[in-house]
User: What shape does this take?
Amino acid sequence: MVLLRVDIDRAGYDERKDVIRDIRFTIESGELVGLIGPNGAGKSTTIKAVLGLLRDFAGEVHFVGSQRNYAYIPEQPILYDTLTLWEHLELAAAAYDMDRTAFAEKAEHLLARFRLSDVRHHYPSGFSKGMQQKIMLVLGFLTEPDVYVVDEPFVGLDPRATREFLDMLAEERRRGAGVLMSTHVLDTAERICDRFLLIEGGKMVAEGNLEQIRQRCGMPEATLFDCFHYLT
Assistant: This one.
């Protein structure tokens, strides 16, 4: 079942309206799709276009159902200085009109899983980058969306938090959620992604699973890292 369909003719900014061109892909239920490419290739612009954050946009982005039921986990944590960790969770729950009992149970579980229970009433502005990133993960998983859009999730995470994040993603995929994940960590992407979208110069230069990417490169035994460098 397709959860997200993206057909971008072009998208960009005031100074350049065609940073990306002809970007077309789908995300299906239970699927993890890796968005990869060198710096400046257009990955961040693609994510912004998917999220509806660009004025200069031509094309269509369609989330299944009557609502855009997705969670965005950014590379750089976005937190309020005047709210505690728990108040951040309460704000997210209120925005999604979550049942209070269901919210409390889910929030407690996630805080325990990411080892944040002891600081729930602290202000995240004083936390380390890794702890702040874990908060973004908790906020993303809290509402159990249909689609996750995740930008460079491994930055700042220690190995234990990375393992918890990957386990949670696997659980959400079994539930039926789809994931679009931008990452530079190609060895991890090779292990966990079902398909890859490789962007270079604002256009898709390859799409498919690892075997299809290898065929595109003419390198039947290559790693994703090798294919990445061949195509870029």
